[in-house]
Amino acid sequence: MIGHGGDRALLADGSVVTLRELGPSDADALLALHRDLPADDRYLRFFSVAPRQLEDFVGRLTSPGEFGHVAVGALDGDELIGVASYVLESADTAEVALVVSHRRQSRGVGTLMLEHLVSLARRRGVRRFCADVLTANSRMLRVFTDLGLVGTSTPDSDVVHVDLGLDPVGTYLDAVADRELAAQRASLSHLLRPGSVVVVGASRKRSSVGNAVLDNLVAGGFSGALYAVNPHAERILGVDCYPSVADLPEAPDLAVLAVPAPAVPAVAEDCGRRGVKALVVITSGVAPEALLEVVRRHDMRLVGPNCVGVVGHRLDATFTRGRVEEGGVGVVTQSGGVAIAALDQLARLGLGVSELVSTGDKYDVSGNDLLLWWERDERTRAVVLYLESFGNPRKFSRLARRVARRKPVLAVRAASSEAGQRAAASHTASTATPAVTRDALFRQAGVTAVDGVTELVEVLAALHATPLPEGKSVAVLSNAGGLGVLAADACARNGLAVAEPAEATTAALRALLPDTASAHNPVDTTAVVDDGTFARCLDLLVADPGVDAVITVTVPTALGDPAGGVHRTAKPVLAVSCDQPGSVSLREDGIAVYADPARAAAVLAALAERAEWLRRPEPEPARLEVDLATARDVVTGRDGWLDPDQVVRLLAAFGLPVLGGVLVRDAEEAVAAQRSYGSPVALKAVAHDLLHKSKGGGVLLDLADAHAVTEGFTSLRERFGDRLTGVFVQPMAERGRELLVGVVADPRFGPLVVTGLGGVDTDLLDDRAAALAPLSEADLDDLLHGFRAAPAVFREYDEDAVRDVLRRVARLAELLPEVAELDLNPLVLTGDRVVAVDARVRVAPAEPTDPFLRRLRDPRRGS
C-alpha cells in the first residue's frame, strides 16, 4: 500500500492531492470518473467512445482478488480526479494506462500518479511498463516522454507502442526533482511571499510573543495586507484587529499563531475554513495529531510548531530582536536559538538573509522543501542548514548535491541521535555511528560542514566575494615572521600545502624587500615595509603559477600597518589582522579578515574542499555483470547471519574474489576436503554466537594432513560443544597486507561502505574511511585514500583490485536491501590481486522504500 491511508503530494500549481491504491470501495467512483469523460477523452483512452464491459474492467482493477491488476488514484478531498493503473502481462512487464478528469488536466495530476505507480510497481518486481497510445493522443505521449524513464516509442500506423524501463536512472530522478521544485515553489510562495498576513494572538503587551511578531512585520515594511486577531482590541501597533479569523475581510495567505497550546488546533481549524494557505505556529507544546489532522484536511502548509518564525522578502514574521537585513543567505534551522545567533552574526558582517525558516518541531515544511525553494532562487547565493534530524536523508543528499552545484551549502553539525547507535556485532557496524554517517552524507553531497555559528560566519565571509582556489597550494605573506610561521603550520594541519614559489618569484621578492626579510614561503617582509611594497609582494605571489591562494598576516607597529596593501586578486586572498576585534569581519571590498591565522587556514581549507568537490564529475551508476537471481535466492526469506557457504555463494554472484571453502559436519568430511585441495587448510568453527572467530578461538591454521585435520576438528567440537553447527574448511591463503571492506545498512541513510586496515589491526588502530552508497568514482577515491595508512598500503600494493571490490560491494548493498551487515575481513592484498579470506553477512527482512517519491512530510513515518 502507499503510505498510511495515502500520501499527500503537491500538484504543479502547489495544491495538494492524496494518492493511494484503490480498492473495492472505490469501484463506483472509478466507474463515474470514466463515464464523466468527454467522448474525445474516452476514445483516446479506450480507442472507442463507448467502451464495452467497462464495469467488469473497473471491478478487476479494484478487486484485491485480481492478481496483477493495480490502480493508484488521486483524490482531491473525497473526489477521485484521476487513476493510473497497470495490468501484468508477464512476471516483470505490465501494461500501463492513465485517466484524469477532464476538468483537472494540465496540472500535473497524471505525471504525479504515474510516479507513484512506477514506485509501487518497482517494489513489487515489475521492471517494464508498456502501452499502446493513439498517435492523436499527443498529450499522453508527452506525459510518457517527460516522465524521464529510459524507453522507446515505436510508431505503427495510427498507434505508438511505448516501452519504459522502471529503473530509477538519473534522468528520471532529476525529472522528478524538477517537477517537485516547481510544485514546492508554488506551494511555499504562500509562506515566503504572502500577499496578506494575519497574526492570531497579537497582544498589546510589549512583552508578548504575538506583539513582537506583529511589531517586526510592521517595522520590516511588509507591503501586503496585514491583520491582527484580538477580540479585546481595535488596533495594535497601527494594525486593524478583528475578533476572530472568520471576521477577517479576506482570507490571508499566511497566518502566524501565537496563542496558548490548547487553543492552536481550534484556531488552525478557523484558518482552514477561512481559506488560509499557510500557518506558522510559534507556540510550543502543541498536541501533534490534532494540529496535523486540521492541516491535512484543509491542505495548508505548516511551519513549526515551537519555532521562531519565518523571514522572507520584506517579511519578518519572527519574534527576533532588531531589524533583519535582507541579503543572499538562505537559512533553515530546527533551533530557534541557532536562528537568532545566525541572524545576529550575519548582521555584524553586513550579510543579510533571503529567507530564514525556523522549522521547530518540523511537522511539515522541512530542510528538503527549502533546498528545492533555493536551488534556482537568484536572490539566494548561499544556503545554511542546522538540522538536528534527517527525515529523508537520501533525498536530502540528492537535493543538496543539486543545490551545491549552483551555490554553497553549509551545515552546522548537530547530533544525529535519531539514526541510533546500533549494538554492533561486526567491525563495520561498530564504525557506523551517527556522526560518521552524517559526515559521509555531507561530504558526498558537497555540503560544507562546520562546528558552530562562529565557524559558519567565518566561512560565509570568505565565500561572499573570494574566488575558490584551483588547488591547495598556499603562500603566506606577513610582516611578522612568527605569525607567518603559525599560519604555515595551520595550513599543514588543515590539509593545505605550503607552496614553493618559483625562483623568479623569490628573486623579485628579494629585490623588493630589505636584506633582513625572508623571501621564501612563508614570506616575512619585516615590520618596516609600507603598504605599497606589501601590495607588490602580494601581486608577485598571486602571479606565481605554483600558488593557488594567499594568506596575509599583518600587525600594526609604530612604523606603520601594511594591511592597506592587502587587496582582491584573481586568486583567493584571506587576511589576518591581529587588531581584528572579532573572529572575522568583511571589508568593503569583500576581503575577509580574521583575528587568528589558524581560522584563516581552516576557512581556506573549506574553500579548497568545495572547489575540489565542484571539479568532480557527476556520479554515474556502476555497470557490472552480476548474477542477481542467485544473490536474491540466497538472501530471500532468511534472517540472521548466513552460513559460510551461503556467504561464498552470495559474494561470488557479484563477482567478488572470495576464498571458497566447504562446510562439513564431521572429521571425515573435513579430511576429504583437505585432500581435495591438496594443500594445508584452515578450519573455522561455525557456532552459535561466534562472530569474531579468531578472538573466540574458532580458527585453526596450516593443517597439512589428515591427522592434523582430525585433531583440529575434534578440538573445535570439544571447545564449542553443542554450539558447533559445522566447520568451514578453506585452503590456506597467500599472505599479504590485510584490509577491511564492509557495509552496514541504515533504513533511511542507505548502505554505508567502510574500508580500512583489517585483520588484527582492525580493532587495534581503528583506521577507517566511510562513504554512503551509491558510490561515484570520486567516492571510491575517498574510500581508498581516506584512511591514514592508505599511502603506505598503496605504495606497495595495487589499488585497482581494491577499487573493484569496493564498487561491487556497494552495488550489492544497493540491490539487496536485505543485507544488513557485511564484513570482508581480512581482504588480503598480494601484489595486484585481492581475496576475501573471511567474510560475514547478516541479512534481515527489508521493507522496500522509495526515498525520492514526491510526497509531503509525514512525522508519523519519520519522512
Describe the structure.
GO terms for molecular function: acetate-CoA ligase (ADP-forming) activity; acyltransferase activity, transferring groups other than amino-acyl groups; ATP binding; metal ion binding. Keywords: ATP-binding, Nucleotide-binding. It comes from Saccharothrix coeruleofusca. This protein folds into five domains: 161 residues, Gcn5-related N-acetyltransferase (GNAT) (Aminopeptidase), CATH 3.40.630.30; 159 residues, Rossmann fold; 155 residues, Succinyl-CoA synthetase domains (Rossmann fold, 3-Layer(aba) Sandwich); 172 residues, ATP-grasp fold, B domain (D-amino Acid Aminotransferase, Chain A, domain 1, 2-Layer Sandwich), CATH 3.30.470.20; 73 residues, ATP-grasp fold, A domain (Dna Ligase, domain 1), CATH 3.30.1490.20. The strands form six sheets. The protein has an eight-stranded mixed beta sheet with strand order 1-2-3-4-5-6-8-7, with helices on both faces. The protein has a seven-stranded mixed beta sheet with strand order 11-12-10-9-13-14-15, with helices on both faces. The protein has a seven-stranded mixed beta sheet with strand order 17-16-19-18-20-21-22, with helices on both faces. 49% of the residues are buried. The protein contains 27 helices and 40 strands. The longest helix has 23 residues. By secondary structure, the chain is α/β, with parallel strands linked by helices. Helices cover 35% and strands 24% of the residues.
Topology:
Layout: E1 7-10, E2 16-21, H1 27-35, H2 39-46, H3 54-62, E3 69-76, E4 79-88, E5 93-100, H4 109-123, E6 128-134, H5 138-146, E7 151-156, E8 159-165, H6 170-192, E9 196-200, H7 209-219, E10 225-229, E11 235-236, E12 239-242, E13 254-257, H8 264-274, E14 278-281, H9 288-297, E15 301-303, E16 309-312, E17 315-318, E18 326-333, H10 336-349, E19 353-358, H11 367-375, E20 382-386, H12 393-404, E21 409-412, H13 427-431, H14 434-445, E22 448-450, H15 453-465, E23 473-478, H16 481-493, E24 497-498, H17 503-512, E25 523-524, H18 531-543, E26 549-554, E27 573-577, E28 584-586, E29 592-594, H19 597-614, H20 628-635, E30 640-641, H21 644-653, E31 662-664, H22 667-677, E32 681-687, E33 699-703, H23 706-720, E34 724-731, E35 737-744, E36 752-757, H24 761-765, E37 768-772, H25 777-785, H26 790-796, H27 800-815, E38 819-830, E39 833-836, E40 839-843
Helix pairs in contact: 1-3, 6-11, 8-9, 10-15, 11-12, 12-14, 15-19, 16-19, 17-18, 20-21, 22-23, 25-27
